[in-house]
Design goal:
The complex is a heterodimer of chains A (about 120) and B (about 110).
Chain A: E1 3-7, E2 11-12, E3 18-25, E4 33-39, E5 45-51, E6 58-60, E7 68-73, E8 78-83, E9 92-100, E10 107-111, E11 115-119
Parallel strand pairs in A: 2-11
Antiparallel strand pairs in A: 1-3, 3-8, 4-5, 4-9, 5-6, 7-8, 9-10, 9-11
Chain B: E1 4-7, E2 10-13, E3 19-25, E4 38-43, E5 50-54, E6 58-59, E7 67-72, E8 75-80, E9 89-95, E10 102-103, E11 107-111
Parallel strand pairs in B: 2-11
Antiparallel strand pairs in B: 1-3, 3-8, 4-5, 4-9, 5-6, 7-8, 9-10, 9-11
The chains are: A mainly beta (about 120), B mainly beta (about 110).
Amino acid sequence: EVQLVESGGDLVQPGGSLRLSCAASGFTFSSFWMSWVRQAPGKGLEWVANIQPDASEEYYVDSVKGRFTISRDNAKNSLYLQMNSLRAEDTAVYYCARYCTGDCLRRMDVWGQGTTVTVS
Amino acid sequence: DIVMTQTPLSLSVTPGQPASISCKSSQSLMHSDGKTYLFWFLQKPGQPPQLLIYAVSNRLSAVPDRFSGSGSGTDFTLKISRVEAEDVGVYYCMQSIRRPLTFGGGTKVEIK
């Protein structure tokens, strides 16, 4: 079964740091782009970051550039999001998602259940 | 950034009746490769989003055929031919032609 499981969400003070993890299974993790998407309480979806299969390139939404870092360990089938200088507006459920490119036409076709980050 | 605008904000539908959601983008979503990078997701209450339709009109295999997507350029529509109770939730459109990837604000579908 194709699965993504996030962990690492917590309550953290403004200015603090947190590292989220996403464990992938059921597919060849090293072949896929991966993404983080967040959802603030009662709000819509916001794309946060993408990373290439070989981690050679990363992309971020402007609001997190310089504060968040997406990374991956293909040997461990794991995706990470290092979050520094956290702000109240970073409070959200963070989802990891498989971003399938090429013949998949850039679709986010597998999502985890999410992990909750509260900055207060 | 490409702005995705969904209407209506909410829909209340009688079971068995059709429903339609509009999504308009601030720029064309048709790439030079000929593909159009417009997607539809459903987020059921308490669940993560699930992909329903990719590249405007392609349904995932597990998605019922009462769901259909159409449109081109900057104007897109998701239609549910006969709404069922399990279709409740918030529907989002999304573009991936250009970073940052952006979502519409969502359309909440309820059952009357």
